[in-house]
TrEMBL record, chain A:
Protein's recorded name: Cd(2+)-exporting ATPase
Cellular location(s): Cell membrane
Domain (P-type ATPase A): residue spans on this chain: 117-218
Cellular component annotations (GO), alphabetically ordered: plasma membrane
Main enzyme class: translocase
Species assigned in the record: Sporotomaculum syntrophicum
Xref: PANTHER family: CADMIUM/ZINC-TRANSPORTING ATPASE HMA2-RELATED, CADMIUM_ZINC-TRANSPORTING ATPASE HMA4-RELATED
Keyword terms, alphabetized: ATP-binding, Cadmium, Cell membrane, Hydrolase, Membrane, Metal-binding, Nucleotide-binding, Translocase, Transmembrane, Transmembrane helix
EC number: 7.2.2.21
Main location: membrane
Membrane topology: Multi-pass membrane protein
GO molecular function, one term: metal ion binding
Pfam families linked to this entry: E1-E2_ATPase (PF00122), Hydrolase (PF00702)
Superkingdom per UniProt: Bacteria
From TrEMBL, chain B:
Protein name (Swiss-Prot/TrEMBL): Copper chaperone CopZ
InterPro entries: HMA_dom (IPR006121), HMA_dom_sf (IPR036163)
All copies of domain HMA, residue ranges: 2-70
Top-level lineage group: Bacteria
Source organism per UniProt: Sporotomaculum syntrophicum
């Protein structure tokens, strides 16, 4: 019965609304007082029923909820035969709850969309080798699953057979299809756009990357900052306090009407809902744009950031060194390249890999008597020739002469920020290669946006040599750039900045630099969807997409502002209501309830604006 | 000990949380520290001793204060 009535709460709100209209028309248009009074009496009784049930349920578990205050106030008004007040207050309370529910659902929609992307079923191989559809919860690690075109990958797994293209937008935010074949990793929640594959389940349910993202976002939207925890504690005692105050007022003034009016005016209303609403809308917006914000504390801190520290050159550059310049001093190019590729093929040094990639397919010789010169390069014998591959120091050590042109080329390549690789065959310089990393497209504009948003310092701390670091810093207009930094140097540097009172955000990949990520007030992970990055940081930029950073900053600023607006609205309404109760004649229960319900709607609508937030420039 | 994740109907008023917390805490065998009612995701997460209290008891307690349980997951700890 209780359930039935609560289920019909919305219908009750509309019926009592209609009754109130009937009452007022019959009173003022037809001057029929009887119908008016009876309509209001019915509306009051009907309206208070669901509220009273909720109040009873709350009291049973020793909670003085808003329902309790309203029920007492309405019953009081009814007893002193102020039916107009009792009817209107119950109607407003119910109707307000209805509107709140509608708008709240809208505010939460962004996160709901994300959760709805979760896979629900899977085609699992049974013992006789056939596939049958099961719920995704029934899939265990090691099960073999079939994924057909258009279906969602149910778990994180490895492809056993088949090929296809997968849209990984739900994990990376990038909707470019990625080719998958035997041995490729696939992720839960991604969609197979063409082909058919069989996979073996590696991680299931909450352990999948997608499951972790969802859990993270869900926890984030309900995580609480210091202020919110204070408001929570406050409201726990606030409602009982209002009840006590109203009682005291009644005892002292013997004014029953005043006492019950205080009950209604004292409802916490928008105060409890204002901040969570901004929070959920802001985090929802981020989730849609590839920015995972871990809760309102993070939003608060990042919105006030002074300094953003980038962990390495690779964050601002593509991180994949390429042969950018070359000079050849030999005629038999193919042969020299073949020697070079043969030597470099044995090394996994990033420069060596760049060279192998650059030369491509070529004949490979057997390399003999390989001698790795620390900090210099490699000397080896190939096909009876002595081949030296390395930097200038190595060639000097080998007593290989450098002519004027070669010296000029070396100077020019270095000025361009290249790392140099020289190749000499039988004591003669044959090839000079300049290898460098490229700056990520768009990074410069993104950094400008960060500055416009009020970030004072952009600092690069890198393990690379100072020359490379300076070059990147000049090209991008960074405030400061320091090379030759070890992870412990970086965290020491961050501590120094913090000692100067700055709020520091650290952008890193979350693996090597976890001390700095933890130390900075805001750790930002450039996560390609890896577990470590997701867990250790405060903000995750999906798919390592640097361009999300300005959006993240703008969004946190907008969200923090939105929270402050909502607090002002909520507190302001309560203060104005109580003040006008003391200083004015016109304040009554109905106006008080109307103001409360309106202020709740205003804070929700204000919060909803964040869903559509976009960076202006 | 087991860990329950209970999905409720959409919660719309923050005082709902106090009510649900109160109802679940009143049960025997509940790890009060672990209890977390989240408003926005409308979920209850709690650890409980399955020898003292069953998941059905927890669901009933929430139902009794007027909130519908949509889906429950229980995991061994």
């Amino acid at each position: 019965m209780q359930k039935f009535i609560l289920g019909k709460k919305n219908n009750i709100a509309f019926i009592s609304g209609a009754l109130i209209i009937i009452a007022f028309t019959s009173h003022y248009a037809f001057h029929n007082i009887n119908i008016a009074i009876w309509s209001l009496v019915i509306a009051s009784i009907l309206g208070v029923t669901p509220i009273a049930i909720q109040a009873y349920q709350a009291l049973k578990v020793k909670v003085v909820s808003i329902d309790v205050l309203v029920t007492i106030a309405v019953t009081g008004a009814f007893l002193i035969q102020n039916f107009e007040e009792s009817a209107i207050v119950t109607f407003l309370f119910l109707f307000g709850a209805y509107l709140e529910q509608r708008t709240l659902n809208k505010t939460r929609s962004a996160i709901k969309e994300l959760i709805e992307m979760a896979p629900e079923s899977a085609l699992k191989q049974t013992e006789n080798g056939e596939f049958e559809e099961v719920e995704v919860d029934e899939v265990d690690v090691g099960d073999i699953l079939l994924v057909k075109t258009g279906a969602k990958v149910p778990v994180d797994g490895t492809v056993l057979t088949g090929e296809g293209h997968i849209n990984e937008a739900s994990i990376t935010g990038e909707s470019v299809p990625v080719g998958k074949k035997k041995g490729s990793q696939v992720y839960a929640g991604t969609i197979l756009e063409n082909g058919t594959i069989q996979i073996v389940a590696d991680r299931v349910g909450e352990d999948t990357t997608f499951g972790k993202i969802i859990e993270l976002v869900e926890e984030a939207q309900d995580s609480k900052s210091e202020t919110e925890r204070f408001i929570d504690r406050f409201s726990k005692y606030y409602t009982p306090a209002v009840l006590v105050i109203a009682f005291i007022v009644w005892l002292l003034s013997r004014d029953f009407e005043l006492a019950i009016t205080i009950l209604v005016l004292g409802c916490p209303g928008a105060l409890v809902i204002g901040v969570p609403i901004s929070n959920v809308a802001g985090i929802g917006n981020g989730a849609r744009h590839g920015v995972l914000l871990k809760g309102s504390e993070v939003i608060h801190d990042f919105s006030k950031v002074d300094t953003i520290v980038f962990d390495k050159t690779g964050t601002l550059t593509i991180g994949n060194p390429k042969v950018a310049d070359k000079e050849i001093y030999a005629e038999n190019v193919d042969e020299v390249f073949a020697y070079l590729a043969s030597v470099e093929n044995e090394s996994d040094h990033p420069l060596a890999r760049a060279i192998v990639e650059y030369i491509g397919d070529t004949k490979l010789y057997t390399v003999e008597k390989t001698d790795v010169v620390k900090g210099g390069g490699i000397v080896a014998h190939i096909d009876g020739h002595r081949v030296a591959v390395g930097n200038v120091a190595l060639l000097e050590q080998e007593n290989i002469p450098l002519n004027e042109k070669a010296r000029a080329d070396i100077a020019r390549f270095e000025a361009n920020g290249n790392s140099l690789v020289l190749t000499a065959v039988d004591g003669e310089l044959k090839v000079l290669m300049g290898i460098r990393d490229q700056i990520r497209p768009g990074v410069k504009e993104d950094l400008q946006k960060l500055k416009k948003l009020g970030v004072k310092n952009l600092i690069l701390l890198s393990g690379d040599n100072q020359g490379t670091v300076d070059l990147v810093a000049n090209e991008l207009g960074l405030t400061e750039a320091h090379g030759h930094m070890l992870p412990e140097d970086k965290s020491a540097y961050i501590e120094e900045l913090q000692a100067k009172g700055q709020i520091v955000a650290f952008v890193g990949d979350g693996v090597n630099d976890s001390p700095s990520l933890a130390l900075a007030q805001i750790g930002i992970a450039m996560g390609g969807g890896t577990d470590v990055a997701i867990e250790t940081s405060d903000i995750v930029l999906m798919n390592s997409d640097f361009s999300r950073l300005p959006h993240a900053l703008g969004l946190t600023k907008a969200t923090a502002l939105n929270m402050r607006q909502n607090i002002v609205i909520a507190v302001g309404v309560v203060i104005i209501l109580l003040a006008s109760l003391i200083f004015s004649e016109w304040m009554n229960m109905s106006i008080g309830m109307l103001a409360h319900e309106l202020s709740i709607l205003v804070v929700i609508l204000n919060g909803m604006r964040l869903l559509g937030y976009k960076l202006k420039y | 000990m087991k860990k329950a994740t209970i999905q409720l109907e959409t919660l719309t008023c923050p005082t709902c949380m106090l009510k649900i917390e109160g109802a679940v805490k009143a049960l025997d065998g509940i790890d009060k520290e672990s209890l977390n009612v989240s408003f926005n995701s409308s979920k209850v997460k709690v650890n409980f001793d399955d020898e003292k209290v069953s998941i059905k008891d927890i669901e009933n307690a929430i139902d009794k204060v007027g909130y519908e349980v949509k889906k429950t997951q229980v995991k061994e700890l």
